[in-house]
Amino acid sequence: MTDSTGRRGAPRSARILVISGLAMFVAYSLAPVWFLVVSATKSQDDLYSTNGLWFARFRLWENLGQLFTYHDGIFLRWMGNSLLYGVASTAGMTLICLACGYGLAMYRFRGRGVLMACVIGSFLVPGALLTIPSFLLFTHLGLVDTPWAVILPGFFTPLSVYLAKVYAEGAIPPELLEAARIDGAGEYRIFFQIGLRLMSTGAATVFLLGFIASWNAFYFPLVFLRGESKWTVMLGLYSWLNVKIDQSIDLTSLVEAGALVSLIPMVALMLSMQRYWRSGITLGSLK
User: Fold this and answer.
1) Rounded Cα distance, 29 and 76, in Å
2) Predicted confidence (pLDDT) per residue in 152-168, tens digit
3) What CATH number is given for 71-243 in this structure?
């Protein structure tokens, strides 16, 4: 079998295998979301007595009403905390990591290879090993049980530095920077007015990955945050699931509805950043 260009096409069995694999991957990815949507519409009795993958009595609006009013609307406070922590930490992380990646990609200096090796080697360090040193440091600085205990650690992500370096090497022509220097532009001006604009697609990717990691963060908020009013939405839902504050309230249904609502910011962020990836693909096709 050949295509219009005369090249031999893939065997039919291979195409069937690839399509089957992709279909299984899509089903595996969407099954938890479908289960969450279905569960959020059920009462607690229906959660345990009906098919988990299909609807029963539709109680989504009742569950959402209880979710937003239970315990003086503490869920909305948790959502606001997660947005604050996520946006603040991710914005700082994006700027720092883009600057580090830009420097590693565009400048040649002594120790550059060692520094890059340290960045890559830090991938192997489990985050749990940093808990005790971080707790001692934040205790000394008086940051425990404050938003800064969650925001500051998010500023430094080695993987984002590596991604920024790789993207800067492919997106920023060194000749353009040399031309800017000849015209008298300083290094800071070159970075902010040229480098960041050319790295906008990479910045969007780094920001999205960082925000998702911050939004889903559980371990560090659990360790460093004490007051209920400072919790993130993930930590709050966990407390509802494991500590039944009021047995007369259907906390399981509230957890399911809260988990569904917590997906909205990430979906909205993903959709809002589509234009950056489209512009990046278009830019790459013109080079």
Assistant:
1) 28
2) 988 988 999 999 999 99
3) 1.10.3720.10
